[in-house]
Amino acid sequence: MNKPTRSPWTWVPTLYFAEGLPYVMVMTVSVIMYKRFGLSNTEIALYTSWLYLPWVIKPFWSPFVDILKTKRWWIIAMQLLIGGGLAGVALTLPTPFYLQASLAFFWLLAFSSATHDIAADGFYMLALDDSQQSFFVGIRSTFYRLAMITGQGLLIILAGFLEQSTGKISLSWSITFFVLSGLFVAFFAYHNFILPYPAGDVERKDQTPKKILAEFVNTFASFFSKKGIILAIAFMFLYRLAEAMLVKLASPFLLDAREEGGLALSTQEVGLVYGTVGVIALTIGGIIGGIVASQKGLKFWLWPMALAITLPNVAYVFLSMTQPDNIWWVNMAVAIEQFGYGFGFTAYMLYLIYFSEGEHKTAYYSICTGFMALGMMLPGMAAGWIQEQLGYQHFFIFIMICTIPTLLLVPFMKIDPEFGKKKINDQTGN
């Protein structure tokens, strides 16, 4: 039976909005929520950093998503599972064992979200021809960023409003997660109806898990035999070393009381400052980074972008030392740091694409993103403990010291001067 053809406008925006939401809920919103529940920074950073693991090991099971069922099936199934996981978080928050139970559901969300990423990105390439992929790459990126604003901004503001209205933190966050759960049930129903049936999206019955595993082992071995592999892995780990720790403590710093070295912002204010103004600045930085890199290439912009992702971290040193009352100063400082991060992150993503060139480009890129996630996970796990030992002022000074390895590494990077010029493909990263 012939399936109806769907315009990409009916599903690309919603698919990538649905891809961005669970990631931001697991990685960012969970940090703010646990802070409001009274967990220490050490506990928050350790527990939530472990949630990166599904994205770290994603390359190991992505080949099996290709052969078991269709990508359309995986998208629909994962959206339903994400909706159930969000409902599970909502149901367990008011209970005495909320921490263990909610973390278990966050793990379910993380694995479901990582699997959804694999299926959605593969489906995008199968359902659209080359010209459509080029046209919609900006659209998908925009809606992924809108999902970040919704998760880190609007939903945090909603939770803060409910905290003020009800006076009950657990109830407020439970309602917020129920709202999001309902949204994903709607995504499930909508995409089950609207997603097209690409001719190439079929089960690969000619392949078996054994064949796929053998192919993956060979691909993995060839990746680690690539020229410059040690320097490349060092770059993947160290380029975002400072940011990996900063991102875990930014929201707790904004929320903590002034006597503890924080800025004592309300939940709603954090949703506005970090989740809205910050994400908009991050997005603008990324857009400008992509534009300028397309003009002169990655090699030319590597130094400016490395400086952009490291030096603006001094904004948090300023905030921790001055503890300004004026929300506009806080907004400006966070916007500067996030703009620099967005601009500088362009070089990181381009380098992953550059190092992935070769016979198994897609598989190589998947392995690189695993290292990218690991580079965020390991430093983040220790960040909370380090902050509690040093205090916020000295922690942010320590963050500045952690930018030094990034800058020391840049002169050793060997990159084709022509790479990146006029042919940048936007990539969504973790």
Short description:
It contains 16 helices and no strands.
CATH superfamily of the largest domain: MFS general substrate transporter like domains
Distance between the termini: 39 Å
Strand content is: under 5%
Mass-distribution shape: globular
Give start-end ranges of low-pLDDT stretches.
423-430
Please give the share of residues in helix. over 70%
Radius of gyration, in Å, reads 21 Å
Question: Pairing-aware structural class of the strands and helices?
Answer: mainly alpha
Summarize the helix and strand pattern as letters: HHHHHHHHHHHHHHHH
Domains counted in the coordinates: how many?
2
Nearest-integer average pLDDT: 89
Q: State the CATH architecture of the largest domain.
A: Up-down Bundle
Q: Largest beta sheet, briefly?
A: none
Oligomeric nature of the chains: single chain
How many helical stretches?
Answer: 16
Counted beta strands: 0
Q: What is the CATH topology of the largest domain?
A: Growth Hormone, Chain: A
Assigned CATH class of the largest domain: Mainly Alpha
Characterise this structure.
The protein has 430 residues and is an all-alpha fold. It folds into two domains: 199 residues, MFS general substrate transporter like domains (Growth Hormone, Chain: A, Up-down Bundle); 220 residues, MFS general substrate transporter like domains (Growth Hormone, Chain: A, Up-down Bundle), CATH 1.20.1250.20. Helix 1 packs antiparallel against helix 6 and helix 5 packs antiparallel against helix 8. The longest helix has 44 residues. The radius of gyration is 21 Å and the shape is globular. The protein starts with 11 loop residues before the first helix and ends in a 21-residue tail after the last helix. The C terminus is likely disordered.
